[in-house]
Write a structure and sequence with these properties.
Distance between the termini: 48 Å
CATH superfamily: TolB, C-terminal domain
Largest sheet: 5 strands, antiparallel
CATH class: Mainly Beta
Low-confidence stretches: 1-21, 87-105
Oligomer: single chain
Number of domains: 1
Shape: globular
C-alpha cells in the first residue's frame, strides 16, 4: 500500500507549565484500593473501566498463563466473571498460550456503552473469539447480570466474510432507537467490522489480501455514531484514519494522522466530538530502546496538523503480549486531559493538562507506578477515576510477589 506522509510541522505547541495555587482538579474521595478478594491474590490487575452509571468497574486479571475479565461493584464487592460459553465459572480461564495459530490472542476484552441503554448498563466482550453482549442492572438492592448472548448469529456471520477471533470490541453510544453499534477487529483479515443498530454485520475497512494491514481501536463519534476513528497498522507504522460517514465506510475512509516512522495509538474523542486525543512516538521511533510516546490533539474537521500537548506519556501498553493500548487519554470535559507521565524519578504520576492554557499539573494520588486511568463524568462537576498502581511510596518493590492493584476515587473540577 502506498504510504502518504505529511510534513511534521507543528503549527502550535502548547508549552509546559505547572499550575500553581488552586488546583483545577482535586479529590473529594481519596483513592482507595479495590478489594477483589481471592480472585485477585498475587495477580496483576489491568485496565479498569467504569460502567456508564458508575456503579460497576470492569477489570482484567493477568498472570503468566491467563487473562480473565471481571465486573465488580466497588460498594459491595459483588463480582461477576465475563464468560460467554462458560458462564460464571471463576475457576475457568482463557489461556494466552494454548492456541498455536499465528497471531491469535485467546483473550477476553470488555467495553461499556457510553450511556445507559434503556436504564441499564450494556456491555460487550469476547470469549473464545466470539462477541457477546449482556446487561448489568439493579435487582432488589443487588446487581443483576443478564445471560450473555451472541451479538451475531453464526448464520449471520456466514453471509459475509467469516469472522475469525474477534479482538477489541468497542460499543458505540445508544441512539434514540435501536441498540448501540459495535466495532471490532477480525483478527484473521485485520479488517474492522461493525454490528449495526439493527444487529446486521457490516464490513467497515478494506485492503488487499496480500497487504499485512490490521485496523483496530475503533471509536465511534460520541454524540451521533456517524463517524469513526481507528488505528491502521502496516509497513512498520501505525496511523490514525477516520471514516467520516459509517453509512458509506469504503468511500469515506481517509487518513487523519500519518507521521512518518511512528505509531499513533489509542484515539479518544472529546465529549463534544470536536477533538481527538492520541499517543504518538513520532521522533523517537528510530531509537527502539527509547520509544517515547507523547500526547497530541487534533481537530478532525480542520485538517490542521496535530498539536503536541505533553511529552513523555505512558500509554496503557504495560504488557507487550496483551495487545496495543486501547483505553486512551481521558477527557475531563472538553478542555482537560488526564494521562500518566512516563517518569522514573517521579514514578509515573497521574497528570492533567488544560488545553486552553497549556498548564500541566500533577494529581496528588499518594500512589506510585500508576497506569491505565479511566474517568467517568457523573454530570455534576464530579468524576470517578480508577487506575492501576503498585501501591504507596512505601511499597517494597523488590518483593518477588509484588503485583499491581486497582485504586479508585472521586474528583471534583474546581471552576
Amino acid at each position: 500500500m502506498k504510504k502518504y506522509f505529511h510534513r511534521a510541522v507543528f503549527l502550535a505547541v502548547i508549552s509546559f507549565a505547572v499550575a500553581r495555587g488552586g488546583e483545577l482538579l482535586s479529590f473529594i474521595e481519596k483513592p482507595q484500593q479495590l478489594t477483589t478478594g481471592d480472585i485477585g491474590k498475587g495477580v496483576n490487575h489491568y485496565r479498569p473501566r467504569w460502567s456508564p452509571d458508575g456503579r460497576l468497574l470492569s477489570f482484567e486479571l493477568i498472570d503468566g498463563q491467563s487473562l480473565r475479565t471481571f465486573i465488580i461493584a466497588p460498594a459491595t464487592g459483588e463480582k461477576y466473571e465475563c464468560r460467554g460459553k462458560v458462564k460464571n465459572k471463576s475457576e475457568s480461564s482463557l489461556d494466552l498460550f494454548d492456541d498455536q495459530r499465528a497471531e491469535r490472542l485467546a483473550v477476553t476484552r470488555l467495553s461499556w456503552s457510553g450511556r445507559l441503554f434503556n436504564g441499564t448498563a450494556m456491555y460487550c466482550f469476547t470469549d473464545d473469539g466470539l462477541p457477546y453482549k449482556a446487561f448489568a442492572y439493579q435487582s432488589k438492592g443487588k446487581m443483576g447480570f443478564s445471560t450473555p448472548g451472541e451479538l451475531i448469529r453464526k448464520s449471520d456471520q456466514s453471509k459475509k466474510n467469516v469472522i475469525n477471533d474477534v479482538l477489541l470490541p468497542e460499543l458505540g453510544y445508544p441512539p434514540a432507537k435501536g441498540q448501540p453499534p459495535v466495532i471490532f477487529t477480525d483478527n484473521q483479515s485485520g479488517s474492522l467490522f461493525a454490528i449495526t443498530e439493527t444487529q446486521q454485520l457490516k464490513q467497515m475497512t478494506y485492503h488487499k489480501p496480500q497487504e499485512k494491514v490490521t485496523d483496530f481501536c475503533g471509536r465511534f463519534h460520541p454524540t451521533d455514531n456517524k463517524s469513526l476513528v481507528f488505528v491502521r497498522a502496516f509497513e512498520g507504522n501505525a496511523d490514525l484514519y477516520i471514516i467520516e460517514d459509517v453509512a458509506y465506510p469504503e468511500e469515506s475512509t481517509k487518513p487523519l494522522v500519518t507521521f512518518a516512522k511512528s505509531e499513533e495509538l489509542a484515539p479518544s474523542w472529546s465529549p463534544d466530538g470536536s477533538k481527538i486525543a492520541f499517543y504518538s512516538n513520532f521522533g523517537s521511533a528510530d531509537t527502539p530502546e527509547n520509544k517515547t510516546f507523547d500526547l497530541y490533539v487534533i481537530n478532525p474537521q480542520s485538517q490542521k496538523t496535530p498539536i503536541l500537548i505533553a511529552k513523555s506519556v505512558r500509554p496503557d501498553n504495560v504488557e507487550d503480549k496483551l495487545s496495543p493500548p486501547y483505553i486512551g487519554p481521558q477527557w475531563i470535559g472538553n478542555d482537560i486531559i488526564l494521562f500518566v507521565k512516563d517518569d522514573k524519578h517521579l514514578k509515573d504520576p497521574l497528570m492533567y493538562v488544560q488545553l486552553s492554557t497549556g498548564a500541566i499539573s500533577m494529581l496528588t494520588t499518594e500512589t506510585i507506578l500508576n497506569d491505565s486511568p479511566n474517568v467517568l463524568d457523573l454530570g455534576d462537576g464530579t468524576y470517578l477515576i480508577a487506575y492501576t498502581t503498585f501501591g504507596k511510596p512505601s511499597t517494597d518493590l523488590s518483593k518477588p510477589d509484588i503485583s499491581n492493584k486497582i485504586f479508585y476515587g472521586k474528583l471534583i473540577l474546581n471552576k
